[in-house]
Design the sequence.
């Protein structure tokens, strides 16, 4: 049996992701932040004799290319030709949801409508005649409740019936929407032209293409021009003609007239007795009452800050114990390997490279997991959308857009995100200048990889007020990003702001299942990265920190010293052990200084002494450019190699706190530098791809590193002057 | 506000004109006199969208979210009178200050 493909489409907040999870038990869900799912997700559905791949398309309000989401959705439908498209619509908000449906109908594709949240609609006193709606739309309509799974079997049976030909595909003639005489005339003319040339090999219906061109869909107009420049020109002339005419006679744009007629078509359907309201249609729902409190101009942001602070408080206090547990496990493994293997390159690599490297990152899994859990609650309850809305007021002042807020949050605005999806989330921004300003500033946020650095240094040097410091550093990252954005928007990226519109989903009680899926998926990404990329980089860095090793003369000198100890003391005596350890450590320290990484680190000291960083810190910073997680593991390796304390099994935090090269002031300076210096390599590649030029990516590295260096140096030097 | 009705951009729908008759009730005269931007309208009142100014993209996008001339909306304001949220057809849409300036409404 060959694999069928079914596609899910629908408005944002219509319950698409919930349905997708319910059908596939999805484990590959990435980035469910509202309004930023631009990639498509796939999952498998299997029941009895019916098996299909289900593709979750980005949520859209229409099929006209206002942003990347619509293009992704319609390209998939047109190019991959899914066997059935399931259009999920919110029963409590039929009018707006059917706007997309009306455009899907025009695409003449096998369509099944899933009428979601009929329970909510019923609670609100809305009754819907499903059979009548199906008859008027000309496609099967199945009532479902995606959250509870009610009606899903019937929905999939309908999809199967359509695939296997037991239900006839929709009859396009039944739902031909008229757009008024002027536009209809033009459409007729354009449709003939398109059909004559068999544009795009017939992957879109001719009339649909014509409607999109009249709607001034820039993406499709470009596509047409690329496929057939001559035809594109002729179609554009027709479209401009009718636009001119409408402007002269009705003082309006064609897309307004088209939207008007689409809503007219929908109203026509709804008015024919399909929908009955039992209560006052306009009463305030609970959601609105909550919003009345949470979105106030002054109290709203205050509540937001309190929420953020309590997240940090909870995360730090609850994760302390499990983190210590994981650290114990890794130090136990380390001791075990130490005892099992003979001294040599393999043992050194396993302990200093693999266990310290991966263990250093894995130790923070409990913290990351709790943080993701809290973010999942904010996200699934609908509060995150309010945060974006409230932040828009502030963002506007700094020349950014409300849609930038989500990119910031995804990147780690509430510490724990990742700049890579954050950079991709900027696709929802339509103004190139605002988008570029967002692209260049989101890496300043505290992503999940910077979190271990913050936790480590805060824990080691500012242990009394961990949550408070975390909170302060989060706020600082926002301030820096916003000020940087403002400066960019006043200099290289000058331009007018674009208006912000976003739908706020109603508040919902998060489902336990949803929270678990979201938390686990992101945590798993983190663990997977630690086991693959971070492991590889850790080994490379270990090699750079080990080789070329000491010269034979030096080695001979240390052997001689050992021999001297042997000659002077009993081999098992306390004195001898102490002296041996001292010699071992001196040798290790010298090896590190002499290694490739050590030499680079020492060379960098010529500049970095200004910020208070010694050569071993420099090595970690260099490693951090590959991936920020590596900073912690490299510090671990660098400071374990030259350790002078015989009781070597202390944690990295304690070792740093004891080291002469570190002090609270150095820690502060290092924290600031690590928060703001060059984005990691993957992010830089993403910036290059999203901005379409390596110049911007290089600019991003240079300006952020320069800024971070100036900031760290000023703090360090002023701190020193003040006597810290 | 004067002369706003004569601006040559904005996706407006004039229901009183020839060939209309869909009964939206946004007459031209009203557009000149009784219209005000959503940003300045009163809280908690039912309003009717009469005109959406701005480029073609903005108009189309707002229309796809349900905000287009003729649509009835309600302003939901926070307790401290912050104007921000619009309720229409059972959904809540938030508008930035810039967008709220571009939507001209009258009392429904």
Sequence:
């Amino acid at each position: 049996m060959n694999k069928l493909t079914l596609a899910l489409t629908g408005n944002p907040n219509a319950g698409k992701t919930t349905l997708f999870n319910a059908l596939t038990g999805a484990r590959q869900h990435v980035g469910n932040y509202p309004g930023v799912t631009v990639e498509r997700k796939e999952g498998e559905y299997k029941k009895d004799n019916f098996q299909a791949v289900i593709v979750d398309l980005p949520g859209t309000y229409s099929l006209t290319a206002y942003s990347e989401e619509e293009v992704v959705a319609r390209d998939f439908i047109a190019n991959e030709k899914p066997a059935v498209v399931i259009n999920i619509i919110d029963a409590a908000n039929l009018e707006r949801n059917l706007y997309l449906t009306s455009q899907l109908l025009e695409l003449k594709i096998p369509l099944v409508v899933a009428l979601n949240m009929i329970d909510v609609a019923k609670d609100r006193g809305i009754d819907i005649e499903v059979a009548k709606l199906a008859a008027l739309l000309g496609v099967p309509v199945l009532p479902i409740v995606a959250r509870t799974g009610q009606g899903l079997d019937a929905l999939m049976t309908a999809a199967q019936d359509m695939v296997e030909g037991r239900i006839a595909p929709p009859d396009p003639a039944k739902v031909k929407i008229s757009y008024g005489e002027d536009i209809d005339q033009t459409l007729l003319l354009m449709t003939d032209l398109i059909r004559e040339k068999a544009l795009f090999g017939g992957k879109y219906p001719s009339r649909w293409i014509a409607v999109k061109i009249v709607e001034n869909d820039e993406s499709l107009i470009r596509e047409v021009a690329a496929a057939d420049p001559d035809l594109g020109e002729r179609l554009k002339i027709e479209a401009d003609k009718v636009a001119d005419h409408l402007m002269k006679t009705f003082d309006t744009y064609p897309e307004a007239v088209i939207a008007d007629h689409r809503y007219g078509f929908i109203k026509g359907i709804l008015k024919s007795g399909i929908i009955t309201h039992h209560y006052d249609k306009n009463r305030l729902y609970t959601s609105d009452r909550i919003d009345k409190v949470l979105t106030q101009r002054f109290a709203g942001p205050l509540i937001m800050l309190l929420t953020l602070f309590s997240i940090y408080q909870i995360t730090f206090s609850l994760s302390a114990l499990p983190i210590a547990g994981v650290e114990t496990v890794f130090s136990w493994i380390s001791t075990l390997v130490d005892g099992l293997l003979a001294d040599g390159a393999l043992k050194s690599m396993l302990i200093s490279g693999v266990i310290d490297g991966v263990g250093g990152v894995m130790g923070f899994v409990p913290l990351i997991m709790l943080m993701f859990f809290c973010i999942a609650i904010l996200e699934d309850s609908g509060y995150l959308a309010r945060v974006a809305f409230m932040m828009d007021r502030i963002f506007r002042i700094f020349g950014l857009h409300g849609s930038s807020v989500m990119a910031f949050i995804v990147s780690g605005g509430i510490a724990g995100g990742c700049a890579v999806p954050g950079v991709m989330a900027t696709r929802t921004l339509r103004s190139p200048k605002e988008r570029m300003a967002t692209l260049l500033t989101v890496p300043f946020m505290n992503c999940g990889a910077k979190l271990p650095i913050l936790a480590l240094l805060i824990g080691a040097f500012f242990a009394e007020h961990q949550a408070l410091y975390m909170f302060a550093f989060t706020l600082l990252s926002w301030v820096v990003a916003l000020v940087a954005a403002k400066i960019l928007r006043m200099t290289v990226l000058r331009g007018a702001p674009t208006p912000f519109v976003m739908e706020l989903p109603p508040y919902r009680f998060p489902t336990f299942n949803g929270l678990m899926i979201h938390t686990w998926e992101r945590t798993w990404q983190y663990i997977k990265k630690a086991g693959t990329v971070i492991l590889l980089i850790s080994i490379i860095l270990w090699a750079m920190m080990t080789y070329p090793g000491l010269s034979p003369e030096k080695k001979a000198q240390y052997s001689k010293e050992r021999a001297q100890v042997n000659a002077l003391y009993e081999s098992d005596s306390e004195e001898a052990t102490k002296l041996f350890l001292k010699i071992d450590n001196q040798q290790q320290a010298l090896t590190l200084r002499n290694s490739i990484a050590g030499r680079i680190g020492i060379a960098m000291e010529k500049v970095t002494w200004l910020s208070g960083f010694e050569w071993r810190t420099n090595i970690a910073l260099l490693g951090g450019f590959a991936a920020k997680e590596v900073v912690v593991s490299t510090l671990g390796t660098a400071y374990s190699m030259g350790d002078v304390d015989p009781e070597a099994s202390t944690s990295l935090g304690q070792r740093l706190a004891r080291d002469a090269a570190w002090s609270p002031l150095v820690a502060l300076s290092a924290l600031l530098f690590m928060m703001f210096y060059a984005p990691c390599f993957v992010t830089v590649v993403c910036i290059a791809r999203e901005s379409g030029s390596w110049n911007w990516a290089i600019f991003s590295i240079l300006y952020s590193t320069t800024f971070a260096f100036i900031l760290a140096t000023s703090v360090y030097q002023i701190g020193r002057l003040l006597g810290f | 506000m004067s002369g706003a009705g004569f601006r040559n951009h904005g996706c407006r729908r004039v229901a009183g004109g020839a060939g209309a008759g869909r009964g939206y009730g946004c007459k031209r005269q009203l557009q000149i006199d009784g219209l005000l931007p959503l940003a300045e309208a009163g809280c908690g009142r039912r309003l009717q969208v009469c005109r959406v100014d701005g480029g073609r993209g903005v108009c189309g996008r707002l229309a796809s979210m349900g905000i287009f001339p003729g649509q009835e909306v309600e302003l939901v304001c926070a307790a401290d009178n912050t104007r921000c949220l619009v309720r229409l057809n059972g959904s809540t849409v938030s508008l930035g200050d810039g967008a709220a300036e571009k939507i001209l409404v009258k009392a429904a």
